[in-house]
Amino acid sequence: MYDSEVINEESERTAFRKVEKKYKIYYDNSKKKKIPRPVDLSEVIDFKSILEKYNYDGELMEGVTAIQCDFDRSIFCLENRPGFYFIPGALSLEEQCQWIRESLTSFPQFPNRTNHDAIYGPIPYLFVSATEGKALVFEERDPHSVDSDTSNPKWKLVEEMDRLSGTGNDAYKSVKASLLLRKLRWSTLGLQFDWSKRSYNVDLPHKKIPNSLCDLARRMAAPAMPNGEEFQPEAAIVNYFGLGDMLGGHLDDMEKDWSKPIVSMSLGCKAIFLLGGKCREDSPIAMFLRSGDVVLMAGEARECFHGVPRIFTDTENAEISTLESQFVDEDLSFLDYIRTSRININIRQVF
Ligand SMILES: O=C(O)CCC(=O)C(=O)O
Ligand SMILES: [Fe+2]
């Protein structure tokens, strides 16, 4: 579902893939610099300008509707994608900063799992280690050992200088924490998903999603909940994107009840989101996702292919200057990270 590298030949020819390729970053080779190929963004729906125009004269573009409910932000829907909701600027700057910090520090911590677990086991304090210039030294796992204690990694953090001076022991290999941070692609909160079985495994050790994130998700989900029920956040996936990273077209079909929304929050650099139809042959609708935007996918929209073909990290297009100004007065490591990254937190009710 998340492996954008594995795109089989058939899907190479679909309408979804065609649009994905249109927006994906390609470079034109010049002698010295890699220059991103210009892309025509005129067909990308921009809910920020839709909101500005709506506030100004009450007008909406064709195909877009506004829903009336007792929510303190404007919510837009697409006529031909029932169950899809877009809440531009739903999160305050403080909320954005808070969830960026948590996404980088506490969320990738055991028992939450990350894409690194399969190779390295849990890595504590990855973000801090990266900013302190540390390296991780791994002890080769003994293939005959039957150690099942996954909370006890077989490696230690060392100062970069120690690493350079060498351990003199060939059984060790090392990798810079900063490289692992750049390669962090996802972490999972709450009930853990077993990718190999493509299902939630309630027996895997897990920690509840933090209450404040649950409260936020419940509040955001309310407009899309059937019969005024309360959303129960049980699992979340945090996606981390650097320049050139994309999330291929997929469906999130592992949760039992599709009438409940997926609450999806964008943080950091601006991205293009593609919302397709129920098959890959349906041409997707492209829209911008900015830091603080929230998207809800419920009902029929849960059956629609979607993905993120592009993030923008250049100053003109990333649109994170206000977010940057929040981070300048504190730890600059968050600022460094978010300048070239996007984080998405999507929260699900599983049962
Ligand atoms: O990054 C996004 O905005 C979408 C994420 C997503 O679709 C997912 O994790 O299932
Ligand atoms: Fe998804």
TrEMBL record:
Single GO cellular component term: cytoplasm
Binding site residues for Fe cation: H250, D252, H306
Descriptive protein name: Alpha-ketoglutarate-dependent dioxygenase alkB
Pfam families associated with the record: 2OG-FeII_Oxy_2
Any one Gene Ontology BP term: oxidative RNA demethylation
Family according to the record: Belongs to the alkB family.
Entry superkingdom: Eukaryota
Annotated InterPro entries: Alkb, AlkB-like, AlkB-like_sf, Oxoglu/Fe-dep_dioxygenase_dom
Gene Ontology molecular function terms on file: broad specificity oxidative DNA demethylase activity; ferrous iron binding; oxidative RNA demethylase activity
Keyword Nucleotidyltransferase: no
